[in-house]
Write a structure and sequence with these properties.
Layout lengths: L1 E2 L11 E2 L6 H18 L5 E2 L10 H6 L3 E2 L12 H13 L8 H10 L1
Parallel strand pairs: 3-4
Antiparallel strand pairs: 1-2
InterPro entries: RNaseH_sf (IPR036397)
Protein name: Transposable element Tcb1 transposase
GO molecular function: nucleic acid binding
Amino acid sequence: MVWGGIGYYFHTPLVRITGTLNSQRYISNALEPVLLSYLQGLVTAIFQQGKTLPHVSQRFYVNHQIELLPWPARSSDVSPIKNLWSMFAQRLTQIPSPATTLDQLWQRVETV
């Protein structure tokens, strides 16, 4: 699992999450160490979650004063990062020799 975030004028570093993604790993590997540091410098940030991420208690967002963009009940997935992931995957497929291990793949991800 790879997690990343984008904004108008920034992007977060990519975060490699090993094992099954659950709410605790999501919080301890991505939200607390990466997202919070980026949001602290922004006055009017609104965080848009992906639909496939694990459920995180509203208490986490309230405690850290993170405003969430609400998802309508029957909305299409309009996450702007989907386009970025698609471009990223395309660039990975253009590398001539395929990775044979997760570590090799991660090294290539870090250079794309």
